[in-house]
Design brief:
Helix content: 25-40%
Distance between the termini: 75 Å
Strand content: 15-25%
Shape: globular
Strand order of the largest sheet: 4-3-5-2-6-7-1-8
Mean pLDDT: 83
Oligomer: single chain
Number of helices: 24
Number of strands: 26
Low-confidence stretches: 465-477, 653-698
Length: 726
DNA sequence: GAGCACTGC
């Protein structure tokens, strides 16, 4: 332990913490900050007046770091040193060093806003800027004003971010703790390659042929590219002359890979063999692969973004930040000196890369966070002026308020309602919390609990789908229920009910291509939600899953009604004469039911007039994912409410949100239009040829005189206008 | 008739 760099700074750290309520600690990889800061402060008496708590953005990190600290202090995990993550609280009355996920600390502060039991709060990995850590930073800033005498805050961050965080906390001191990494030589390419995959391939083979042993880690954006490069590498390696270089193992690594495939990267290679790990940014922070000496960094990452004016998410390939680039490079220097090949010029790194990635708070829907903050009753703070390190846009806050109003979480003046308070207690998106509460009124709580729990685990349910396994499986699970035509929520309910009928048999999951881990998670979530609902209702609710199936002609009416109330802000109306939909309540968007949906059309081939959806996502087109058929009569009250909506009033009058004029107009470079522009008022989707590397979702055309006025929507829902002569 | 990076309560 004595070799950890941070320990040489022990006196300095203690002294600085002694004299300041907030300290920023910049600790590079390998500095030991995550395990040592808490122990240093413990040694100097900070656990006498309370618990030292350390937050982590990820569950595995909270658990593994706690385990290490317990080992180092030679105590049993869960006694003096413990951790708390969702579904798992391993702390006791004797715990004085506690690791937890940032989300758990936020939940705790709901019932104890002053966090009185803690003498020190360490927000670790703050540079990752998770939504929860950002909210915590705002809360903690407020907390030190109230508890200045007996609370110490430490924020750990990255070099490029330290100044900004310090400024946010009234210019608090910054401590630098060097890391313990071997030097990594950075090699930039002269130009940006025209094809990243080809360039990756060439660089990888060059390393393989020329460089001494050591594994190669390659960062790409997603599963598709990874699979392509893996097969390219396999071909190329096979064609190398036998004996001319060492053997090679090529491993893909991404999140949708089944766990048993993911852990393959942890087994060391046989002698005289080099591994190529082709990965998403999962290997940047979440997984650490040992033995890596060479990193190839294409400089891109796939990021999810939310557009508050359309309510639409998109998944975009964007440039990484400098912090990310450095993090990736650092992966080469864990065991010995390494090399990082960047497939972009150093000028691009310097001039184009952001210092830090755009924080999640500026890329997400904020309904949940705003409701959470409202429920804290911070009378001294106006939510809309809440002090964030990077404030979200006014538009995003307005969107959040609108959502909350439509589901009765706040009233027309923006104050939280009793409904809203209950909703904030549930670890769910507000729309789903609202659904549960409504379902309770209609006597279908048990079903709603199942649906909501299934939605929380949706991405973990299906078995990893790579193209190769797809081929093998000609018969896609025919035995699963189909939602009886009402849509995906009902199908999710029916799937869980089937599993319930099969007594939660693990083999049933396997037979039906469902991940066991995912289904177990659903069970846990459902149980947790049921407990919270019981507590709220203070009576006994019927949350049991019913062991009877298929009452004939069950139309799930009550459940669908409850969903309609919860998803008031996620409503779409079918267009006349075709099966496209228009979103209601947002700037009107033409959207389609996702092809994977089980929603059924009637005998005439027509889809229901109204649906609610769980998510709007722009991929090749804007799609509604997870839809449920609802009825006109249930929609009317929502439309009435939308009519009365006054967002200025929702923002509490005093805090008038200023209009933001930062909607970026997409530059149209090429004005060639292909396709049939029908010269009438009907929206017509055209194919649009363009010169910029922006992909457009749709083009609405309208003829005016000899010109065609086009309204063009790009992937993130931003719109631009273009006039074309015809 | 598509396809989705990563977390978390």
């Amino acid at each position: 332990m004595a070799s950890l760099p941070i320990l040489q700074f022990e006196e300095k750290i203690v002294e600085t913490v002694e004299q300041n309520p907030v300290v920023v600690v910049i600790g590079e990889t390998g500095s030991g900050k995550s395990t040592q800061l808490s122990q240093i402060l413990h040694r100097h008496g900070y656990t006498k007046s309370g618990i030292i708590v350390v937050t982590q953005p990820r569950r595995v990190a909270a658990v593994s770091v706690a385990r290490r600290v317990a080992q180092e202090l030679d105590v049993r995990l869960g006694e003096e040193v413990g951790y708390a993550i969702r579904f798992e609280d391993r702390t006791s009355e004797r715990t004085h060093i506690k690791y937890l996920t940032d989300g758990v600390l936020l939940r705790e502060s709901l019932s104890n806003p002053d966090l009185n039991q803690y003498s020190v709060i360490i927000l670790d990995e703050a540079h990752e800027r998770s939504l929860n850590t950002d909210v915590l930073m705002g809360l903690v800033k407020r907390l030190i004003k109230m508890r200045a005498s007996n609370l110490k805050i430490l924020i750990t961050s990255a070099t490029l971010d330290g100044e900004k965080v310090s400024k946010f906390f009234s210019n608090c001191p910054i401590l630098n703790v060097p890391g313990k990494l071997f030097p990594v030589e950075i090699l930039h390419s002269k130009d940006r390659p025209t094809s990243y995959l080809d360039s990756c391939l060439k660089t990888a083979i060059d390393i393989h042929v020329r460089e001494p042993e050591g594994d190669v880690l390659i960062f790409l954006t997603g599963q598709d590219d990874i699979e392509k490069l893996v097969s390219m590498l396999e071909d190329r390696v096979r064609s190398l002359q036998e004996g001319s270089c060492m053997d090679a193992i090529i491993l893909p690594l991404h999140g949708s890979l089944p766990p048993e495939m993911q852990v393959r990267v942890f087994s060391p290679p046989p002698p005289n063999c080099r591994r190529f790990i082709v990965s998403t940014n999962i290997a940047e922070t979440s997984l650490t692969v040992d033995g890596v000496v060479y990193v190839i960094d294409a400089g891109y990452v796939k990021q999810r973004q939310y557009n508050p004016s359309t309510g639409m998410y998109s998944l975009d390939v964007v440039q990484i930040s400098k912090v990310q680039a450095n993090q990736r490079a650092g992966r080469a220097g864990r065991t010995r000196p390494g090399k990082c090949y960047r497939l972009y010029p150093s000028k691009v790194y310097q001039d184009e890369f952001l210092d830090v990635s755009v924080p999640e708070i500026q890329r997400s829907s904020l309904a949940g966070s705003v409701l959470y903050l409202k429920s804290l009753d911070l009378t001294d703070i106006d939510i809309l002026k809440f002090d964030f390190l990077d404030p979200p846009s006014a538009e995003s806050l307005r969107d959040a308020l609108k959502q909350l109003y439509l589901i009765d979480a706040i009233d027309e003046s923006g104050s939280i309602t009793t409904f809203g308070r209950t909703m904030a207690e549930l670890p769910l998106e507000p729309s789903l919390s609202r659904t549960l509460m409504e379902a309770n009124e209609y006597g279908c709580l048990s079903q709603a609990l199942t649906v909501v729990a299934m939605l929380s685990a949706e991405t973990m349910l299906l078995q990893g789908r790579s193209k190769s396994t797809e081929k093998k499986r000609k018969h896609p699970s025919v035995d699963l229920p189909d939602g009886s035509g009402w849509g995906d929520h009902i199908q999710l309910l029916q799937i869980f009910e089937c599993w319930d009928e099969n007594n939660y048999n693990i083999n049933w999951c396997k037979d039906n291509d469902l991940q066991v881990r995912g289904m177990m998670f659903v069970k846990d979530v459902r149980k947790q939600l049921a407990q919270i609902m019981q507590k709220i209702a203070k009576g006994s609710l019927d949350v049991r899953t019913k062991k009877r199936r298929k009452e004939s002609r069950q139309d799930y009416r009550n459940l669908r009604m409850a969903l309609c109330v919860g998803y008031a802000n996620q409503l779409a109306e079918r267009m006349l004469r075709h099966n496209g939909y228009r979103t209601v309540g947002f700037k009107s968007q033409l959207v389609q039911v996702h092809p994977s949906s089980v929603l059924k059309a009637d005998e005439e081939g027509t889809l229901p007039d109204y649906v609610v959806y769980h998510e709007l996502i722009a991929t090749s087109r804007p799609y509604m994912r997870n839809v449920c058929a609802v009825e006109m009569a249930w929609v009317t009250p929502i439309l009435e409410k939308l009519e009365k909506l006054d967002t200025n009033k929702l923002s509490g009058g005093s805090a008038h949100i200023e209009e933001v004029a930062d909607i970026k107009q997409t530059e149209i470079l090429d004005k060639k239009v292909d396709g049939d522009a029908v010269p009438d008022d009907r929206e017509t989707i055209l194919q649009y040829e363009h010169g910029a590397d922006v992909s457009f979702l749709s083009v609405y055309g309208k003829q005016i005189g000899q010109a065609l006025n086009l309204q063009i929507q790009n992937k993130t829902g931003l719109e631009s206008n273009l006039k074309v002569d015809i």
